[in-house]
Structures are given as C-alpha cells and as structure tokens.
Amino acid sequence: MTRNYPSRMPRCPPLAHVLANLSALLAAALLCGCAMVRVNSLGPQQYFAMRRGDILSTGQLSAATQATLRVAALDESSCHSAPQACIDTIATVGGLSTGQRLACLAELSLQMALEQTPPAGTPWTDTQFDSWLKTARYAYAFLFLGQRTAGERAFEDRQTQVRDYYNYAVQELAGALFLRGTAETTNGHRDPANQFIAGWTIHIDLREVRLPEGVRELSEVIPATGLSFAGLHNTYRRDGLGADLVAVTQPAQPDPDSATTNSAATTAEDDANANAGSTFWFAPGSRPFNEMPSPNVTALLLFGNGTLEQLLASHDVVFSAYDPFRVKSVEINGETVPLAANFSAGYGIWLARSGFARQSLRSLLGRTRGIDRPRIYMMQPFDPDRRIVLMLHGLASSPEAWVNVANDIQGDDMLRQHFQVWQVYYPTNVPILVNLARIRQAVQLTLAHFDPAGKLPASNGMVLIGHSMGGVLARLLVSSSDDVLWVTVQNKYLPEGVDIIREDERLNRLLRFAPMPQVERAIFIATPHRGTPFASNRLSRWVANLVRLPIALLKEIDEMLQSATNADSTQRAGKTIMVPNSIEQLRETDPIIQSISRLPISPDVCFHSIIARRRETGPLEDSDDGVVPYRSAHLDGALSEKVIVSGHSVQETPEAIFEIRRILHEDIEVFDNQGAHEGACGGPVAVHETTQ
C-alpha cells in the first residue's frame, strides 16, 4: 500500500530576524577587537628594506627598533617628537632583552644626534657631543657587553646595523674633536692628550698612527666613506670596526735642499718653488722624498671593560687611532675584532690635490714652476718590513700615470702585506743619463735616511716598474755601463782630436754605473729600449723644438765636458757641446739610445715585458702601440712577455694591471722561498699572450 506523506516546504525567516542576526554578528566583531591579517609577498627591494633598512640607510627607524617600541607600548611618532623621554623609557622598561634594549637605544640616540648636528665645519655644542658619545656607548655596549658575544651574532643583520651606528658615530666625533682641538690650539688652551666635554673625559691616543716624519699637526680630518674619485677605478676597503678617515697633514718645516713639503694640500707647483736655486746634484744630507701626506687612519672609541652597568654610567672614553696598513685587528673585551680600513682614499686625495698634470707639461717645456730634479713619493709612511715597488712614469707624465696600478697593488691584501709603493716623479725634458744619475742618487739617499745600515727588508728585494721612458730608466738602473758610454760621448759628441778625461768624477756619475744592488726584479711596460720612429716624425720634432732644458743644467753639463777634455782655449772658444733633450734621445738614430740598448742587464735581476699593440691582426713583429714598435719593446731573456691590444698607455688597462699583480704574487712566492739574488729567475720563458 502506498503512503502519501505531506511535503515540507522551507520557510523563509522574517526580514527583521535576519537583520537582528547581522547586528549581533557585527557587535560581536567589534567587541572582540580582532585584527584583520593579510598576506603580501615582498620583492627584493622591500625584503632588504625590511631586513636592513634603518635610520642611516632610509632615514626611518629600523623594523627591529619599531618592534621594540611596540613591545614597550611606545609610539614611534611620540618618540620622534620627544626622543629623550623615549630613550629614558626604553632604558628602564621591562620585558626587553639586553640586546633589544641596547640596539634600540643606539638607534634612537643616533636619530636624535643626527637631528641635532649642525652643518659640516660648524663647531658642536656640548649637547651635540653628548648625544654622539652616548650613541657610540650604547652601540659599543651592544657589541661587546651584551648577553651574547659578537661572534655568536656574526650572521645577524642587527649586529651589522649597530656596528654601523658605532662606526658612524666615531666618524662624526673624530671630525668634531679635530675642529674643537684646532680651536683650542688657536686659543692656547689645548691639552693634546685629553679633552673635557659635557662631563666626558676623552683621552686621545695616537701612538699607533704613523704621520710623515717631522709632522706633528693635521690640517684636515676627512671621512673616507664620503669620498668618491673620478679616475680611480676601485676603492679598496676592509670591513670591520672603526671609522675610515684621511688625516691630511700640516706641512713640516722644509729642508733647505728639499723640493717639497709634507702637506697633501701643497701642490707640485709649491714643491718647485721650494727648490728654486738648487744645484745639479742633491746636497749631502738632503731629503729627496715625501712620505704620504694624507695617510689613511682608522679611529675607535674605547669605553673600557667593566660591567654593563659600569660602562653605561661611565663618562670616560679613549679616542684611539690606528694605521690600517699595520694593524688588522684589535682586542676588545677579550675578543679579536677586525679593524675597518680604507686603502684608497688618502692616495686619491693626494693625487687630486697634487697639480701634477699641469706641472709635468711645464717641466717638459722648461717653463717656470716646473720641477728640475726627481722626487721620491712614498704612498705610505716608510715601513721597514715591506719591500719596495718603485714606479717610474714616462715622457710628459707624472705619478698620475700609475693611479690605478698603485691603487690596485695597495688594494690587494697579499701584495699590501709584502710591498710598499714608491713613485719617482722626475722632469722628463732632461737628458736620460742626467735623470738616471739623479734618480739613482735620490733612491739611495732615501734608503740611507731610513735604513743607514741597509739591512732592513725594505732595503732589499726591490721591484722596478717602468712605463715608456720610465722603462728605459728602469732598465739602466739594473744594467752595467762599463766603458760603453765613455766611448759614445768621445766619438759622437766631442770634436775630432779632443779626448775626454775619464777620471772626472762628475762625468763618472753620468757615464759609469753598475746595477742597483737592492733590485731583484723589473717590469718594463711599452718601453722603447731601442728608441722609436715616433720621436722623429714631424709632430715630435715640432714638440722637441719647444722643449727647453734648464739654463743652469746646460751650463753645468757644458762646463763638465769642457773641463774634462784636453781641448785648448782656441778649440773651446765660442763653442758649446750640444745637449739633446729627452725627446731627441728617444729617436732610433740617437747615439745614446743605441748604446744603452746594448748594455747588459744584471743576471741577478728577473725581468718581464708588457707590450702593447694597437691592432690584433697582423704579424706581431711589425706591430706597434702608436708610439713604440714591438721590435723596440721586446727584450730577449725576459722571464715573461705579455702582449695586450691597447694604445701606448697600456699600464692603465685591466689586463696590464692583472699581469703586474700576477708577477708580484709570483715574486712573493719565489722571494720568500729563495731570497733575493739566489738564482730565483731560472731560465727565460718567453710567453707571448695577446689580449683584447
């Protein structure tokens, strides 16, 4: 039997009931106070801004500090309007770890210090000093007296941020302390060992800084992090603790025979004026050298090794500065900490202020305010334990020719540990043999000044690097002349029937020489060992006619040659000996260049060639770099030969700098294992490599 069940149709609730339920739900949501959570994906820029953005990089407080403020129930905007009250609260509020508290205090103090700091060059008030010192103290406490060591936090972004707060605070304080010290010196109230500011006692410790010899005062303290240099390809730094600074020195009292002073602000033009009226040779006891007048310095603020409470209550601090070439790390609170460093800034400032470019051309043309004798420029204060790389520039040039070569050598950690860079600056209008004798004397006088006994590592194992005409001079510094040049002068420069007296001491300095015993390796770059046809073309002849030799030099050379011959008064009357200038001596037909090309290089010296060719195609033997042909730059017996597709200024190419560094690295290995002059070179290996 079939049953019929009544159908059940759904019944719609009244509208009033629905509205009542919705109202109840809304009221419950409002009463519970639940936050709405959404998920967003971050791009790389937002990711790094969140992880590492802070008051220094973005001008806003870091995410970590904002989180700490929220934990402490503080509002970021109120902390900005009343920073000290916010700092006082963070210093005492509960619920924060030691690391959170100290890092937040460091950033908040830095924010307040930045807002209070006047424009650069304006002296600070005591309040400003106090803010910056507290910033450094909080950061120092975080780094060294927190619950965990710096090593345990090594990979944390927060430690990197707080280290930057410390470094930046030290940088700003260094400049302000220098300005304050300068003002106190002017007023006659300066204590060189201590400064008393805003209740703080700041002890000044400069024992680890090496200023140029005879220099006691600075003219500027420049933050290296704020500098950029056009023409300097790379800036070499070492990450670590401390502020990278350049200490620009005051001029030392000039030596009567010196061609320069020791200030980076002193230009090459001033050097020339200081040397007015000099004699042909360097006088005994003269100082033909300059140490780096703008050394790189790293500064620290050291707050002691007491407890955290003692440190935060202390107002006693040591401002300590270091030579980053010598000091790589420091001990702080039982931890070995790498020292920050900048190895390029001081060098860049020196070159930028040198005035070499203008002066080198004036010297070539014999104009006033040029130079008339070589100078040795040392890229760092003399280091007795580092061997010397001696660089010699080419015609119409200056140390600026080596800007990136020297910088890359000093930026290479291994090379920096083993070598110090010296650069020769010489007048390129002067005859080659005159420059040679003077450069040799300048180097020997400089070595004798710092190492009279000649026993230090710096006095042995020297490496020469010469470009163009500087390469010719470098080769002569490691060659033996015997009687070859006497015969050349006799046959090519004296009238028939006139003999030269070979015992004349002054001519002996020019015409007879032996290899410098300190040199163990040489690198010749684009060097016209046999002269160049470029020196004989129309343009070069026109330039050569513009070149003027110093009148005093011409007179002295003429007087030497006249007095060293047996010519009678009739033969000498109204006649002078023709003295060729530097361009004329680079002609392939010049008797001197032909003679010196045959002089033997010392068998104790390893030597290398770097040669340029303008075009990659065509026979190598027929190539040239636009100035020097391959046939003149090539030397048999070279331990290596690198051929690079480039113009004549090949020394500045990355390929040439890489080759120089390769040779120096190899030299370190060989020299350390065998020492100088112990057959380290082995047999010659001619390596022809062409690089685009």
Rg measurement, Å: 35 Å
The CATH class designation of the domain at 370-534 and 581-691 is: Alpha Beta
Low-confidence parts lasting 5 or more residues at pLDDT below 50? Answer: 252-266, 268-278
Largest sheet descriptor:
9 strands, mixed
Q: What structural class is derived from the secondary structure elements?
A: alpha/beta
CATH topology of the domain at 370-534 and 581-691: Rossmann fold
| Total beta strands | 19
CATH homologous superfamily identity of the domain at 370-534 and 581-691: Alpha/Beta hydrolase fold, catalytic domain
Q: How far is the first residue's CA from the last residue's CA?
A: 105 Å
Helix content: 25-40%
Tell me the β content: 5-15%
Residue-averaged pLDDT, rounded?
85
Shape: elongated
Keywords: Hydrolase
Protein name: Alpha/beta hydrolase
Region (Disordered): 250-270
GO molecular function: hydrolase activity
Describe it.
It is a single chain. By secondary structure, the chain is of the alpha/beta class. Among the domains are: 49-191, no CATH class; 370-534 and 581-691, Alpha/Beta hydrolase fold, catalytic domain (Rossmann fold, 3-Layer(aba) Sandwich), CATH 3.40.50. The protein has 25 helices and 19 strands. Strands 6-12-14-13-15-16-17-18-19 form a 9-stranded mixed β-sheet, sandwiched between helices. It has a 6-stranded mixed β-sheet with strand order 1-2-8-7-5-3. Helix 25 links the parallel strand 18 and strand 19. The longest helix has 30 residues, at 157-186. It is elongated, with a radius of gyration of 35 Å. The chain starts with 14 loop residues before the first helix and ends with a strand. Residues 252-266 and 268-278 have low confidence and may be disordered. This is Alpha/beta hydrolase.
